[in-house]
Amino acid sequence: MTSALRNIIYNCKQATFLIEKRLAGKITAAETLQLHVHLAGCSVCKIYQQQSILINQVFIGFNDNDFKLDQAFKKTLTEKIKKEINKN
Amino acid sequence: MHNETDNGLRAKSLHSNPLNWVEKYADYLYGFAMSRLRDEDIAKDLVQDTFLAGLQRLDHFEGNSEEKTWLTAILKNKIADFYRKRSSSGLSNLKLTDAESEQQNFFDSETGHWNDKYRPQAFGLEVDNPLMMKELGSILNKCLAKLPGLWFSVFSMKHMDDLSSELICTELKLTAANFWVIMHRTKLNLRACLQKNWN
After folding, report:
1. Which of A12, A59, B112, B140 is the most buried (most CB within 10 A)?
2. CATH architecture of B90-197
3. Residue of chain B nearest A24, judged by CA positions
4. What confidence score (pLDDT) does residue A33 get?
5. Domain that holds residue A60
6. What is the CATH architecture of B2-82?
7. Taking CB atoms and an 8 Å limit, are B183 and A12 in contact across chains?
8. What is the pLDDT of residues B180-192, one digit of tens each?
9. Selection from B108, B193, B199, B114 nearest residue A44 by Cα
């Protein structure tokens, strides 16, 4: 067993780092293997991985349409635009 | 008043009618800004800045692109400026927060094992329950608001705008190593914050 492999089997800090790197970019074949071995034996990091993916989904799935400007703000904004146009 | 405004506009440009902007685009632009900033006041400010900047550059708008696309492009620049400003002005409070997160050690420094306090536990979440997901989303927004500015900028540019890590590093003057440390730390923090505030 290589020392890199031995190091990660019990190292959750390194494993979660690789989980993030894989989610947002890419990791090497060796790192993929290391992570695979770690996750096979670590149920806690498996939970971490599921929740990490979930956080990304909730973050990205944020619905733009849930947010509307109030009428008062829109009115003020329209007035500002008119004022700006008439300035020149 | 209206005639005067209309005349002023006609002289300026035939391609665009800013008097309709608020009605047509304000909600859309606000949603766009909110999804990237998660802060109502800042989002409102940037929508206003976008319209005013649009007025200034009305001469340059030639109707080649949709008005909406054009205004969105202006807003995107405003958001990028905001990210840069927040991440550089956040440097001093970043150090503070860094120190804080060093105190809240997620992992045993020797072994790299999870420390008991931060060990992930199942959320007991039904992902197909929309109400539950909405609740989770609002907790997540509160957790995002607590992040250091630089971390939030990095996380949002990566996930909302799907920018490459190289581009984000250039924009925010980060090394690749720093970028990944921030991505890791951000997620550890967000996850711990969710676990703490869920239920």
Report:
1. A12
2. Orthogonal Bundle (1.10)
3. B158
4. 93
5. 3-87
6. Orthogonal Bundle (1.10)
7. no
8. 999 999 999 999 9
9. B114
Average pLDDT, chain B: 84
Residue at B52: amino acid letter: L
Q: pLDDT per residue over A8-46, tens digit each?
A: 677 999 999 999 999 998 999 999 999 999 999 999 999
Quote the CA–CA distance of B185 and B191 in Å, as a whole number: 10
Average pLDDT over residues B73-99: 72
Which candidate in A38, A43, A54 is best for mutational testing of the B interface (most B CBs within 10 A)?
A54
Per-residue model confidence (pLDDT) at position B96: 46
State the total domains in chain A: 1
User: Hey, which residues 108-167 in chain B have their CB within 8 Å of chain A?
Assistant: 111-114, 119-123, 125, 127, 133, 136-137, 140, 144, 155, 158-160, 165
Backbone angles phi, psi at B114, to 5 degrees: -60, 135
- Ordered by start, the domain boundaries in chain B are 2-82, 90-197
Nearest CA-CA distance, residue A29 and chain B, Å: 18
CB-based contact, B21 to chain A, within 8 Å: yes
Distance from the Cα of B23 to chain A's closest Cα (Å) equals: 8
